[in-house]
Design a protein that fits this description.
12 helices; 3 domains; alpha/beta; 31% helix; single chain; Purple Acid Phosphatase, chain A, domain 2
């Protein structure tokens, strides 16, 4: 009997806030320690190992210290690209670590005529065959799936794992209904295990000819909606899969590194000062050492949303010993000062909706540049900060090059 760990969406380097940085690193460290303790034969990370393709080197260095411990225990780490691992210039930290022998990218394919042929990677110790398709920004991996030579993959014998970093239409959570996804029919049939990533929600599914489709969810995340779910009790962690010639057991290993408190408040029909006072009473509880998530929604009958002193409420909670405070005010509005109607609780969701609604007003001949997902990717690229040892001119040039590559302007204009 053999076993491997399946995890995804680690997102190392995602946070600037020191507390979240530490929680993020602790979760990764605990997961690696657990893999060593359980003596897994290998670890498979299905995308978004790091939060960006070229992360801060201090984040990489800290991760390497733990990865070296795993290597010394004789446990190889196999990976595929996630959407956050991709970079416009084609080389990311994943490629560098692969070249250095720290981890192995198992997603390799060749375009032969009108077909994409995947090369299976065989784990020497267990004989397990790993094949997969890495994610690409702006949903470009869909083209690879559409061209995929599924027949040759289905004919291969042995224990087979298909790794991917995409949403599957048939199993997509309702709150992600507008997310780009792929139908299950795009995947090769008959694999023993389909190791997923990208969806920040744990799920185990089955479908005719696709017996075990598994999403482990994020190892840790400090994003608003995900943090809310964690505080409410949704477990974070990874799977351990026991197998010989087929899967014998799938067990979720929970990683918990903080406790939390979730409070939701409906401000509808109340004025801003009244809400401010009631929130202070609501939060007069023991928050010491806990992450606090406060969700305020509804339409104020009077006053502005800015009349509610959220910064002071946050400071008060931190002064009471709260580990971290997340304030969700996306659903709060005022009759006196209505805000632009853009549904969604996450910044990215709101931005996506605004871009989708407004992009039709832009007059441009190249229709490929009117894709909202392209605009979202450009936003992500331009939000990259100047590196500590990078000259301003070099930073500006890097941003321009990245934007041009993301917009695919060289393809469009042939220069």
């Amino acid at each position: 009997m053999h076993k491997f760990a399946h995890m995804a969406d680690i997102h190392l380097g995602a946070h600037r806030e020191p507390t979240l940085q530490k929680l993020e690193a602790d979760a990764f460290s605990k997961a690696m320690d657990k893999c060593v303790e359980l003596e897994v034969d290998f670890i498979l990370v299905c995308g978004d190992f790091f939060h960006i393709g070229i992360p801060d080197l201090s984040v990489v260095n800290e991760a390497l210290l733990k990865i070296r411990q795993v290597q010394k225990a004789g446990i190889p780490i196999y990976v595929i690209y996630g959407s956050h691992d991709y970079t416009p210039n084609g080389t990311s930290i994943i490629d560098i670590l692969d070249t250095a022998g720290v981890m192995t990218n198992v997603a390799h394919w060749r375009v032969i005529g009108s077909k994409v042929k995947l090369d299976s990677f065989e784990d020497k110790k267990t004989g397990a065959k790993l094949a997969g398709i890495s994610a690409r920004k702006i949903g470009l991996e869909r083209k690879y799936y559409e061209m995929l030579d599924k027949e040759s993959l289905e004919k291969e014998d042995g224990f087979k794992v298909f790794a991917f970093h995409s949403a599957i239409t048939e199993f997509k959570p309702e709150y992600l209904s507008e997310m780009e996804s792929l139908p299950i029919s795009y995947f090769p049939k008959g694999f023993d295990y389909y190791a997923g990533g990208h969806i920040h929600q744990r799920g185990e599914f089955k479908f005719p000819n696709y017996e075990k489709i598994v999403f482990p969810g994020p190892l840790f995340t400090g994003y608003g909606k995900d943090l809310e779910a964690t505080v409410k009790g949704e477990q974070r962690g990874f799977y351990v899969v026991s197998f010989d010639n087929k899967v014998r057991q799938i067990e979720f290993q929970a990683i918990k590194n903080f406790e939390g408190i979730y409070q939701e408040y409906n401000a509808t029909g109340k004025n801003a000062l009244e809400v401010d006072k009631e929130l202070r009473r609501l939060l007069d509880i023991n928050v010491n050492g806990k992450a606090v998530v406060l969700k305020v929604r509804g339409e104020l009958a009077g006053g502005k949303t800015s009349d509610i002193n959220f910064p002071e409420i946050r400071s008060r909670l931190l002064g009471m010993g709260a580990l971290y405070v997340h304030l969700n005010r996306y659903g709060l509005s005022s009759k006196e000062f209505p805000k632009f109607a853009a549904r969604g609780e996450e910044v990215s969701a709101i931005e996506g909706r605004i871009l989708s609604e407004r992009i039709g007003q832009v007059s441009i001949s190249q229709q490929t540049l009117k894709d909202p997902s392209v605009a979202m990717e450009v936003l992500r690229v331009l939000r990259q900060e100047q590196k500590s040892n990078e000259l301003k001119k070099d930073y500006q040039n890097r941003m321009v090059r990245s934007a041009i590559e993301t917009l695919r302007l060289k393809e469009v204009f042939g220069q």
